[in-house]
User: Fold this.
Amino acid sequence: MKKIIPLVFLLIGTGAGVGAGILLRPAPASEAVSDTGTEIKKEKQGEQSAQKNIVEPDHGETAENEYVKLSNQFVVPIVSNDKVVALVVLALSVEVPSGKTDSVLEREPKLRDSFLQVLFDHANMGGFEGNFTQAEVLGRLRMALKEVAQRDLGSEIVKEVLIVEIARQDY
Assistant:
């Protein structure tokens, strides 16, 4: 009898969980769309147009910019006493004028090489030590990345380099 009671409670708890899941399940998307389907489509179109990045430059004109996310993350080893003590992983994007995305993607290998050199130099100068996410430290890194990107691709193509993700794993 003592062995059956836990099994009964287990079955009751499982049944109650399944029942609660069924009752609290959200309505499928097809049921949520009623005769106001056209309004929902208009809202989605509005959201998509709002996702385009419009930036106002200093001279007052409005220009549409696109963001090119580089295909892979950058992995930077942190070396101390001839031993890797940490890894920093970064994801970068490049801000370009609308329609210039292909120019970045065509020259991505050259850009990645230049970015890696800047990141290795930053690591060797201790840029990823201590409070490496401080605005001043990341600002210097961002500026160096922007300079090499503009050197490789041209200042008319590269507007900014964005650090989308950054993480450090110590060993």
In short: The longest strand covers residues 83-97. The helical segments are 4-23, 29-32, 37-51, 101-106, 108-124, 135-153. Residues 4-51 form one domain.
